[in-house]
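seq:
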Amino acid sequence: MYRPVLLTVLLLLGAALAPGSIAAVDQSIRIEDVTNEQGVKGLRATYQVAASREAIWDLLTNYDRFRETFNRIHSLEIINEDEQGAEVRFKIKVMFLSFDYTLQRDYLRPYELLTWHRTGGDFRQISGRWSILPGPNEGIHTVIFESFVDVGYLIPTALVRNHAAAELENTVTRIRARLKRD
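struct:
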């Protein structure tokens, strides 16, 4: 009588612990306040995705499809791009305001590390990075996004941080959905 139940439990445990078994992606997003070396405040988001490094890298560097995921971008113009990086001019809308700035996006370690910094336009400073790290299992990667923005004038920090954190959570949801589709 207990034998079928015990057998079922053992089979389920064996399947869960078997090498190469597919683990579920942790759906959490850890968002934390950070400050860069220049003292500029920003946010760091750490999360997991079930996708290859190549698919994640393509999502971050395929400017033809960039706005599918990063929907605050009204328009973008690639000034130049090669295997080391890209200079891209962005026009974004945040609430009722529009901003225009240019970023140098450096592909420091392709499929692993992409950094950026402001080279012109609105805001005093913009910098950040995307890191793609091995996850807990094959086919799962940990992605770390960091962004630091000094707008150059006084804006209530709590308002900016809360809005940015909420938008970051929505962006991660779009990233996961797009990687699942592609």
